[in-house]
């Protein structure tokens, strides 16, 4: 994780942006580098500036958060995006997971939890609220229930070990330490895992591992 996390706030309400900035100023590792009021501005800012984490509202004018997420991930796939929304709705979350979001946080979240989520995403972790996990897994199972091949049979023993670690929320650094390998090796394993099981990111890989009962939650 970088010593300083460059974070962009994207929300169409000025009062919320101001409140978020004050909350995040408590954490010395978080550096709020900008604030924007719509998805189009968020895309432009991320294209032109060094941003590590984007705190993204879903319902914004001109371009909503879902479309902004899709475009930003095309430009900077390594940028961590955390959706901050009042909507506890499956369809938002499923779309965002598909586009590679790293976290999904409801706006009634405690400030400490928000900060911890940002720090976790900066470490390469993912976060889905427990209240939504069961529904996400059910939808993931429905979408993949027609598959006859168990794709994780294509994985090596070491890749399965790495996948299990990802499913329990471990960062690349933690995985490397636990398995006595380098972080670069962990990244190489993840690239192979994603390709073999047909997923795009850590969140989808974790959901796959839980669905196939490689880990228990």
TrEMBL record:
Organism from which the protein derives: Desulforamulus ferrireducens
Entry keyword Magnesium: no
Function: May play the central regulatory role in sporulation. It may be an element of the effector pathway responsible for the activation of sporulation genes in response to nutritional stress. Spo0A may act in concert with spo0H (a sigma factor) to control the expression of some genes that are critical to the sporulation process.
Residue ranges constituting the Response regulatory domain according to the UniProt record: 6-122
InterPro entries, A to Z: CheY-like_superfamily (IPR011006), NreC/VraR/RcsB-like_REC (IPR058245), Sig_transdc_resp-reg_C-effctor (IPR016032), Sig_transdc_resp-reg_receiver (IPR001789), Tscrpt_reg_LuxR_C (IPR000792), WalR-like (IPR039420)
Keyword GTP-binding carried by entry: no
Example GO biological process: phosphorelay signal transduction system
Pfam families in the record: GerE, Response_reg
In-chain residues carrying the UniProt-annotated modification 4-aspartylphosphate: 57
Name of this protein: Stage 0 sporulation protein A homolog
């Amino acid at each position: 994780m970088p010593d300083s996390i460059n974070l962009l706030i994207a929300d169409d309400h000025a009062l919320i942006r101001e409140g978020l900035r004050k909350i995040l100023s408590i954490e010395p590792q978080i550096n709020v580098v900008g604030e924007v009021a719509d998805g189009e501005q968020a895309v432009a800012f991320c294209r032109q500036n060094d941003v590590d984490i984007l705190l993204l509202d879903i319902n914004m004018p001109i371009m909503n958060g879902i479309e902004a997420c899709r475009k930003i991930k095309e430009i900077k796939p390594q940028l961590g995006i955390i959706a901050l929304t009042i909507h506890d709705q499956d369809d938002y979350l499923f779309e965002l997971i598909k586009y590679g979001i790293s976290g999904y946080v409801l706006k009634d979240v405690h400030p400490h939890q928000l900060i911890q989520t940002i720090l976790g995403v900066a470490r390469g972790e993912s976060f889905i609220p427990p209240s939504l996990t069961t529904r996400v897994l059910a939808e993931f199972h429905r979408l993949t229930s027609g598959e006859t091949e168990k794709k994780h049979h294509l994985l090596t023993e070491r890749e399965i070990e790495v996948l299990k670690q990802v499913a329990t929320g471990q960062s690349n650094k933690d995985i490397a330490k636990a398995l006595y390998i380098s972080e670069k090796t962990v990244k190489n394993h993840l690239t192979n895992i994603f390709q073999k099981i047909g997923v795009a990111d850590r969140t989808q890989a974790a959901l796959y591992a839980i669905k196939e009962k490689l880990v228990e939650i």
